[in-house]
């Protein structure tokens, strides 16, 4: 007997990818339900070779649904996730609404799978921020080997991280440049076509942005609270795929060759690091892929036990939909969720 799964936010970038990945990975679902706002009732979305009609999240009854994959933004999650959890359905939420709640586990299955047992307090599990997910997949095996003291990360984040509207804005502005139409900016604070913007999410009192704060808070929660992390988060005119320049300082000695070997064996990681033209991965090539790609691994001679590396992954997959479905698989494989509805 299989599970009944709901995807809330099914018309969005991440929701559509969730439906693709559920089908691709053969998730043991007897029934998959697509949910969004009342605006989208009846809209059709694809689930493998099937077409699903979207229903209204607001009026949906979760009492026989086992897992809800939620990607409809923070405010929607704040409002609905507790109610869904109370109906006995486990919510795996892609927004930042629950990530810092001590009673909600924040999980990357390659990094901290055992923290999942905490989910039963609220029946909510949080999926990390897209930049943090790929970062911790690459840091975890190195931390296990040489103990990370400090990380400096600069992100190059694609517009799909800002939702479908972000992708439309890059497309429309790029087109407008070529046909000499006026450039309109709605989603981003400045023009994104042929530009980069050092601002993602809101500003905080200390001058950092919320996106930058998320990377440090979430790395500490999942990997090790003692690691010092500082971040600069930048939006770039790329449709899909986040890149990161990562500088790491370790407690113990580790060479670039050792790091390369460790990462080659590490779950979720793929090392592409040839010292030649094109011997590294760019975001364009990682779109549609599951792995976290690591390139340009080299020693940083300006500090003791320092390394630099380049980390790239598909933000809609490992940074969002894939990680959420890996969490659902973890729940199923560990027997933490059982199908509630008897198959018809
Ligand atoms: P809808 O298309 O009906 O607005 P993205 O991040 O790519 O923009 O996608 C956001 C997703 O969240 C969409 O599926 C959107 O549905 C959904 N969503 C937004 N607001 C609500 C709401 N109030 N109730 C349910 N779903 C919502």
TrEMBL record:
<comment type="subunit">
    <text>Homodimer.</text>
</comment>
<protein>
    <recommendedName>
        <fullName>Aspartate-semialdehyde dehydrogenase</fullName>
        <ecNumber>1.2.1.11</ecNumber>
    </recommendedName>
</protein>
<dbReference type="Pfam" id="PF02774">
    <property type="entry name" value="Semialdhyde_dhC"/>
</dbReference>
<feature type="active site" description="Proton acceptor">
    <location>
        <position position="242"/>
    </location>
</feature>
<feature type="binding site">
    <location>
        <position position="315"/>
    </location>
    <ligand>
        <name>NADP(+)</name>
    </ligand>
</feature>
<feature type="domain" description="Semialdehyde dehydrogenase NAD-binding">
    <location>
        <begin position="4"/>
        <end position="119"/>
    </location>
</feature>
<comment type="pathway">
    <text>Amino-acid biosynthesis; L-lysine biosynthesis via DAP pathway; (S)-tetrahydrodipicolinate from L-aspartate: step 2/4.</text>
</comment>
<dbReference type="InterPro" id="IPR012280">
    <property type="entry name" value="Semialdhyde_DH_dimer_dom"/>
</dbReference>
<dbReference type="InterPro" id="IPR012080">
    <property type="entry name" value="Asp_semialdehyde_DH"/>
</dbReference>
<dbReference type="InterPro" id="IPR036291">
    <property type="entry name" value="NAD(P)-bd_dom_sf"/>
</dbReference>
<comment type="similarity">
    <text>Belongs to the aspartate-semialdehyde dehydrogenase family.</text>
</comment>
<dbReference type="InterPro" id="IPR000534">
    <property type="entry name" value="Semialdehyde_DH_NAD-bd"/>
</dbReference>
<feature type="binding site">
    <location>
        <position position="99"/>
    </location>
    <ligand>
        <name>phosphate</name>
    </ligand>
</feature>
<feature type="active site" description="Acyl-thioester intermediate">
    <location>
        <position position="130"/>
    </location>
</feature>
<dbReference type="GO" id="GO:0004073">
    <property type="term" value="F:aspartate-semialdehyde dehydrogenase activity"/>
</dbReference>
<keyword id="KW-0560">Oxidoreductase</keyword>
<feature type="binding site">
    <location>
        <begin position="160"/>
        <end position="161"/>
    </location>
    <ligand>
        <name>NADP(+)</name>
    </ligand>
</feature>
<feature type="binding site">
    <location>
        <begin position="39"/>
        <end position="40"/>
    </location>
    <ligand>
        <name>NADP(+)</name>
    </ligand>
</feature>
<dbReference type="InterPro" id="IPR005986">
    <property type="entry name" value="Asp_semialdehyde_DH_beta"/>
</dbReference>
<feature type="binding site">
    <location>
        <begin position="11"/>
        <end position="14"/>
    </location>
    <ligand>
        <name>NADP(+)</name>
    </ligand>
</feature>
<comment type="function">
    <text>Catalyzes the NADPH-dependent formation of L-aspartate-semialdehyde (L-ASA) by the reductive dephosphorylation of L-aspartyl-4-phosphate.</text>
</comment>
<keyword id="KW-0791">Threonine biosynthesis</keyword>
<comment type="pathway">
    <text>Amino-acid biosynthesis; L-methionine biosynthesis via de novo pathway; L-homoserine from L-aspartate: step 2/3.</text>
</comment>
<dbReference type="Pfam" id="PF01118">
    <property type="entry name" value="Semialdhyde_dh"/>
</dbReference>
<feature type="binding site">
    <location>
        <position position="157"/>
    </location>
    <ligand>
        <name>substrate</name>
    </ligand>
</feature>
<keyword id="KW-0521">NADP</keyword>
<feature type="binding site">
    <location>
        <position position="182"/>
    </location>
    <ligand>
        <name>NADP(+)</name>
    </ligand>
</feature>
<keyword id="KW-0028">Amino-acid biosynthesis</keyword>
<keyword id="KW-0457">Lysine biosynthesis</keyword>
<feature type="binding site">
    <location>
        <position position="235"/>
    </location>
    <ligand>
        <name>substrate</name>
    </ligand>
</feature>
<keyword id="KW-0220">Diaminopimelate biosynthesis</keyword>
<keyword id="KW-0486">Methionine biosynthesis</keyword>
């Amino acid at each position: 007997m299989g599970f009944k799964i709901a995807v809330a936010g099914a018309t969005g970038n991440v929701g559509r990818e969730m439906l693709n990945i559920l089908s691709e990975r053969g998730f043991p679902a007897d029934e998959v339900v697509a949910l969004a706002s009342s605006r989208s009732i009846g809209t059709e979305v694809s689930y493998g070779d099937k077409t699903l009609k979207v229903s209204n999240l607001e009026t949906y009854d979760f009492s026989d649904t086992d897992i809800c994959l939620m990607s409809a933004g923070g405010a929607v999650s704040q409002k609905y996730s507790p109610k869904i959890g109370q109906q006995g359905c486990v919510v795996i939420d892609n927004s930042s609404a629950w990530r810092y709640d001590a009673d909600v586990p924040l999980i990357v299955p390659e990094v901290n799978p055992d923290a999942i047992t905490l989910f039963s307090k609220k029946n909510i599990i949080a999926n990390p921020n897209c930049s943090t997910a790929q970062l911790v997949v690459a840091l975890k095996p190195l931390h296990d080997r040489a103990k990370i003291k400090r990380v400096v990360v600069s992100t190059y984040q694609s517009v799909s991280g800002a939702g479908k509207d972000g992708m439309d804005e890059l497309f429309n502005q790029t087109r407008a440049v070529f046909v000499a139409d006026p450039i309109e900016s709605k989603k981003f604070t400045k023009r994104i076509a042929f530009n980069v913007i050092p601002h993602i999410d809101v500003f905080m009192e200390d001058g950092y942005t919320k996106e930058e704060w998320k990377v440090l808070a979430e790395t500490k929660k999942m990997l090790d609270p003692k690691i010092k992390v500082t971040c600069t988060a930048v939006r770039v005119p790329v449709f899909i795929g986040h890149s990161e320049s990562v500088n790491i300082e370790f407690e113990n000695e580790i060479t670039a060759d050792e790091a390369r070997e460790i990462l080659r064996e590490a779950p979720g990681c793929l090392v592409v690091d040839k010292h030649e033209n094109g011997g590294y991965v760019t975001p364009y090539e990682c779109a549609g892929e599951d792995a976290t790609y690591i390139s340009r691994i080299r020693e940083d001679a300006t500090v003791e036990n320092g390394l630099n590396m380049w980390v790239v992954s598909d933000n809609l997959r490992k940074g969002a939909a894939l990680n959420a479905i890996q969490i659902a698989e973890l729940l199923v494989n560990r027997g933490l969720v059982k199908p509630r509805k008897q198959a018809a």
